[in-house]
């Protein structure tokens, strides 16, 4: 049964469907003229692709995020467009029957299914810190990845280790890319990741028959290609030197820049300001709280403390220097904390340096491309 | 005949839960509950800025998002003696209340319903009769024959694709499913409607807190969303109207669909009012401070303890009587300790994976076993509703009486699997109405000229004492939640959380007394050991949240000094 028939039987009009495709093309950073092509790809899809969604050291936040997915009336349809053959949070089957369903789906769609991983994978002590159905996360992942067309890591934990990998990383939590080899891996970090980016990725896969271009952290460029700071609705206030100095002050009420309140937008690459969350309603800065950098590798250690202020850097607001601020942030924050005598808050200094170096490279690449 | 049943993974929950049960002559004679995932977030918290703790602890769980954020900021505020502005308390109430409502709706329709509703049977339903059934239970807008025909057609088309996705391989056709096809079709329609409704309800969090799951709006001392009726970057009349509208959507759904569904389904499963009671000890911390005195004063839902199902004697909660036992948990230290002294080194001694069975006579879970005065306590909506009912709560008691009257049962029927599910629905109804009141109270307070949302005088760590300690409690959707924090030199020295699913999901204690999940399973009839649907019913009635339940680590055993109890 084609998608067109499924949609018709669900009472979704052609117009509503095309609206959805237009929205998806926007998320994918494609011109709107791609909407018909997206529609065609979805409609011509000869049967729903199988998705195996596995959770390891997770909080289920990404599963919940996908449950909030959707342009009006279509989130559910998108779930129907896929064949979600294993997803613990919603699946009806339990126990060995659930595992059986997974194995059947994997066998039937060998080499073709999309494997979605949520949560980190603990490797210490032979992986005993996360067992499902009597076996370790690491074994489950390796087995499932072997037959997958691609592996999608949703959320920061599956991408980079995330929360459980925070210092001192008691269980040896790692991201998918550190475990899986020989398969394409795409990271969709965020805490949780934005559901619109998951659907956009899947649509991209269906439309173009391939995975999207990714950056050095394996994040799709359509969603992680720009710095939050560069797309922020409060950027004008940053450029004008208008900052919030205290929670609830006049500047805060007026929606001025949250940089001094610890906002990590200048060193975070994500499309939050443009696609926002919950059907495009809001995002952290819009609701008055700074970005904490949850889409970046090394989060949380490179971003904590979340309210750490930056010093006043002369020349703020000059476009060419905004890039440098992103580069300097980690180092600058460290300097401030040293003054406060809590330098050890940034425990993983190696990671800070790594991120800093990568940002430098990234900026060079970007500039080179101009 | 004796069978050992393993259900792992228990799906339609948060986290990784495994149940092993011994079945003799069709009845469960012993049961073991195991949490099989461990992250060690409390260890990760040590040395960090206490103002960051809410963000990190919120990641204990993404299903009951917000709840650990609330407990955490309360703990820090308690330690530093910070008094939160009235507006911030009301915004928190609205966020907590809408979390509870949305979480309960998702639980009933998407996590629990399929234990009672056979989706495949819906394919046999007569749409005309289903429409009559719907119209007889409420005046909900989706009630026409055409509507139910379209749902039935959709399900049929879905099944005909041969790809059942999340509905594959379940216990369909099990003899314990009792609903007629029309009730199954009605419930299936509501399952799909609730998928849409839940994401609308929770937009309250997006408006007040940027996003859901994991709103990013909490601050030690208040909230990050400023209030200014004359700004487009703050809470203004327009945004208040939005949250009111989302709550109206929730209210209509709860009143016209959720409650009628529970009342329509329950009569087919009244035997479950006599199954799954467990220990009948219940505890509630109380919630929703309603006056400008702030938390923990003037709470709308009362605190209290019920022992052995005795509703005539409600005891006050004394937090010094809480201790965590680890006799059967994968930790080195085996002494039961108060959370302030909680210090446990993880030590996995279970079988080497892959394994078939856990060694239940030894250690078998990463979950600890909290005890109150040495005995296990059940926490959650049933505990809250029973305590409130026994105290004659103005809003809750009449709803409980009306539900019991409709089911022709007495209060003792609530001590059961069905009772948990009914209490959750009852609570949803009273809270969704109360959220409306809090939105009105917030509006009134803003109208009176109070725009304050944050108490900032103690924001900077330089204003803090060298050492401070405190605790924060919250009645989360799944029950009594507590965070304990010790701050030294502006950093977290120790952090402990005792969460609802730890109370409920814990293994046996040192006296081999079972935890609430385990105890409530013992005595449950099992029709088919290969399809233990009955285990899911009782376990899901607790609404497990295992990522929450397992969160402890402290490899070195940090010493906690005696903490002042407020």
What's the quick description here?
Chain A has 370 residues and is α/β, with parallel strands linked by helices.
Structure, explained:
The complex is a heterodimer of chains A (370) and B (566). With 370 residues, chain A is of the alpha/beta class. Helices cover 41% and strands 10% of the residues of chain A. Chain A has helices at residues 3-9, 14-27, 35-44, 61-67, 75-81, 95-108, 137-146, 155-160, 195-208, 221-224, 228-231, 235-239, 250-254, 272-275, 319-339, 349-369, and strands spanning 50-55, 83-87, 113-118, 121-122, 131-132, 135-136, 148-154, 173-174, 185-188. In chain A, helix 2 (14-27) packs across helix 3 (35-44), helix 3 packs across helix 9 and helix 15 packs antiparallel against helix 16. The longest helix of chain A has 21 residues, at 319-339. The N and C termini of chain A lie far apart (46 Å). In chain A, 57% of the residues are buried. Chain B has helices at residues 41-45, 53-58, 67-80, 86-112, 119-122, 127-137, 145-160, 181-201, 203-209, 237-265, 381-390, 396-407, 417-447, 500-505, 516-521, 533-542, 546-549; strands at residues 2-7, 17-24, 27-35, 218-219, 222-223, 282-289, 299-306, 322-325, 369-372, 467-476, 479-488, 491-498. In chain B, helix 4 (86-112) runs antiparallel to helix 8 and helix 9 packs antiparallel against helix 10. In chain B, the strands form five sheets. In chain B, strands 1-2-3 form a three-stranded antiparallel beta sheet. Residues 552-566 of chain B have low confidence and may be disordered. Chains A and B meet through helix 1, helix 4, helix 5, strand 2 and helix 6 of A and helix 1, helix 4, helix 7, helix 8 and helix 9 of B.
